[in-house]
Amino acid sequence: MTFSHPHLEHLDISHLVSISQVVTQAKEWKPALDKIVRLVRSIFIFDNLALYLYDEDNDSMDIMYARAIGRGQKAEADVSWGESIASRIQKIQKTIVDEPLPDPKKNRLEQPYILAVPLMLQQQFLGALVYIRFGGPPFTPENIQLGEYITWHISLLVQRQKIQDAYKVLENHTKLMQFQEDFISTISHELRTPLGFIKGYSTTLLRSDTEWDPATQHEFLQIIESEANHLQHLIDNMLDSARLQSGQLPLYFEQVYIDHLLEDISERTHLHYPDLRVNLHLETPIFTIKGDPNRLTQVFENILANAAKYAPGKDVDIIVHQDEDELAVMIRDQGPGISSDDLPHIFERFYRSPKLESTVRGTGLGLYICNQIVQAHHGKISVTSQPGSGTTFTIILPCLSSQE
Predict the structure, then answer these.
(1) CB of 108 within 8 A of CB of 132?
(2) pLDDT digit string, tens, across residues 10-27
(3) In contact, 63 and 130? CB cutoff 8 Å
(4) Mind listing the pLDDT tens digit for each residue in 346-380?
(5) pLDDT tens readout for residues 70-79
(6) Most distant CA pair in the chain: distance in Å?
(7) Residue closest to 46 by CA, chosen among 78, 80, 14
(8) Taking a C-beta distance cutoff of 8 angstroms, is the pair 235, 363 a contact?
(9) Which of 33-47, 136-150, 309-323, 349-363 has the weakest average pLDDT?
(10) What is the CA radius of gyration of the chain?
């Protein structure tokens, strides 16, 4: 089936079917519009096409899509895009045809013929589609019908995109609500434990009906101090996590000698965990990286603290290798390892293995923070493990020469 009209040359119904198929199959509206424009151009004369969408919040028309295809293509920045007619469409919400008075002294780019069609669905105004022909020919009734038909299909496309966007907002809001509930539940539980210890032992020491010998008092005070330190660690992790989430964690980059940094960390780790043996292996001459030494220390100390927690009394090997572009730090323990079910989630915020929740304390924030800090250094952190064969964390950081 074809339409016969001076300005609708060889219009085949298959073109209209193709337009409908693009609309129904489209996942994103802008790539779909590109396809529609190519299809429409073969059956409908226009030089410029502009899509305006109505912004309800500002009660304005914003251009969201524009293509210069015909005679205005080379002068794209200077030709009309139908801004004024789009504003008129917003007010009357009806099709407008705007034609210039013929003037042989003007060139074609100065004589735009404009067809503006409102995007309407179920009496809801979505915007306007503007077709522009420079120098003609005028828009015939058949042209206008075809333009309205095409615009209706684009209205479907725009409306579906709006529904998809609204669904994503709702989905993200639901996830945020769940995240907030999980956050409150996790933090409440983790804060309650050290506070309970501190409250219990301090109340016991303050009892007026009992006298405690110096050794017992010292033991109770040590427990209070330990739990206060644990509480401080929790608060610091929560603050760092929140700052990382919002992109507000401050990093102060400077030249860092990783070998010296790791030597200091190894010595401090031995003081905090006397049973943990840390062996540092420098396989190549160590160059320098550009980083925040305090945050990098936080990363390495967190991984070593995990080794002390999950593999007490075992050796930990730190192997450092560096070439001209990258520095690799591998931290390998001899602990029980991590199950294949847990490995994909190990760097997720608040993730803790269900098998360990009742036996090992923690918030599931430490490795999340490590991952974010390493990424902020343009590096990568990964983990490999086999149950019963230990765990290896690998941190890759760019060398100073590759950052300059």
Answers:
(1) no
(2) 456 777 788 788 877 777
(3) no
(4) 888 777 776 655 455 556 788 888 999 999 999 99
(5) 665 554 444 4
(6) 111
(7) 80
(8) no
(9) 349-363
(10) 34
Q: Tokens at residue 242, please?
A: 């929140």
Query: Which tokens sit at 323?
Result: 């070439």
Q: What size, in residues, is the chain?
A: 404
Instruction: Identify the CA nearest to 63 among candidates 161, 124, 153, 129.
Output: 129
Within 13 A of 99's CA, how many CA atoms are on the CB side?
Answer: 8
Q: Distance between CA 170 and CA 28 in Å, rounded?
A: 18
Give 55's strand partners.
60
Q: What is the pTM of this model?
A: 0.50
| Residue burial 72-105, b: 16+ Cβ < 10 Å; e: rest | beeeeeebbbbeebbebbbeeeebbbbeeeeeee
At 139, the amino acid letter reads F
List, in order, residues 6 or more apart from 195 with CB less than 8 Å away.
227, 231
